[in-house]
Amino acid sequence: MGAGDINQVIIIGSGPAGLTAAIYAARAGLEPLVIEGYGAGGQLMITTDVENYPGFPDGVQGPDMMMMFRQQAERFGTRFITADVSRVDFSERPFRVWVDNDEYVGSSVIVSTGASARWLGIDGETRLRGKGVSACATCDGFFFKDKPVVVIGGGDTAMEEALFLTRMCESVTVVHRRDEFRASAIMAERVLENPKISVVWNAAVVDVEGDNVVEGVRVADVNTGEQSVIPAAAMFVAIGHQPNTELFEGILDADGEGYLITDGTNTNVEGVFACGDVQDTVYRQAITAAGSGCMAAIDAERWLEAAEHAAAAAN
Questions:
Q1: Catalytic, out of 49, 136, 207, 221
Q2: 169 belongs to the catalytic site
Q3: Which among 301, 247, 246 is positioned nearest to 273, based on CA atoms?
Q4: 136 has catalytic annotation
Q5: What does DSSP say about strands 171-175 and 49-50: parallel, antiparallel, or unpaired?
Q6: Residues of the chain with confidence (pLDDT) below 70
Q7: Which burial class, exposed, middle or buried, applies to 247 when counting CB atoms under 10 A from its CB (0-12, 13-18, 19+)?
Q8: pLDDT for 18-57, tens place per residue?
Q9: Which of 159, 33, 49 is nearest to 96 (CA)?
Q10: CB under 8 Å to 209, separation ≥6 — which residues?
């Protein structure tokens, strides 16, 4: 199928949501085209051990799991383009999607571009990512059972991560740049009342200590500049996520944070669906992303069938 032919389904993005959508769409005979992006595989490509995905009793490496997803989608006839989408036009059907100067046309589109964790931008954070530096306590907290950990942030996400970590970690230290949390009052209260949680106020992270694994977090007082090291086996960065939705600004409805607004998986444009972290502000897990990818593919299949029947009846 060439660039000018009409694809039944174009899937933009290739994390657990996009690849699951591809598996279901391909098995339905829709011959999906996945424009997987240069960051193919999504956030799991920077995740070392995945131990909470059913079917892998001994755990699995994130990149290995994404390769298995991709191979399964390919087995059923999914086609892949390893490049980033540069622009889209959803103003009329069939929909148009560009990769640089190459135009691809689709009767339906599934958006699964995901969301990226916001990071602090310090050297040690990058060097020790996957070795004690994480942006997901639900994913990685279990690896630090009975050990001290640090959570960075002051919003509801940071409060949720800290409270979750108290279930398995020896202690949790929350580091926040200000002298009060931005979190909702009830969440802040739960953290402040928890005996396993301590708070370091007015502090910014300077670096992460450790050669091969996290051994501590170096912070500086934002008022005095005085530095100190908090001993820790892990640092969880909880300063939010950024949905990858720049392509769709002014085209697809989004909330104030940029997450796509969906009814199920339906966007405001009929025939365009969204799944995974690009529209999930709550769970952000591989398994929930995969589940919504399945939903999007089924929704797209049913929508295409209904559109085909309507067109036949009109003729």
A1: 136
A2: no
A3: 301
A4: yes
A5: unpaired
A6: 1-4, 46-48
A7: middle
A8: 999 999 999 999 999 999 987 787 878 766 678 889 999 9
A9: 33
A10: 124, 215, 216, 217, 218, 229
* Closest of 89, 85, 113, 67 to residue 275, by C-alpha: 113
Tokens of 61: 């490496």
**Cβ pair 168, 144 in contact under 8 A:** yes
Global confidence as pTM: 0.82
The catalytically annotated residue of 58, 84, 89, 140 is 140
Active-site annotation holder among 49, 58, 139, 280: 139
Which residue, among 294, 273, 267, 295, has the nearest Cα to 107 in the 3D structure?
273
One-letter amino acid identity for 137?
A
Look up tokens 């999504």; give the residue. 42
Q: Is 139 a catalytic residue?
A: yes
Peptide bond before 94: cis, by omega within 30 degrees of 0? yes
Q: What is the pLDDT of residues 104-143, one digit of tens each?
A: 999 999 999 999 888 999 989 999 999 999 999 988 999 9
Q: In the numeric block, which tokens belong to residue 173? A: 């230290």
By C-alpha distance, which of 276, 125, 290, 269 is closest to 210?
Answer: 125
Of 113, 112, 114, 107, the residue nearest 270 (C-alpha): 107
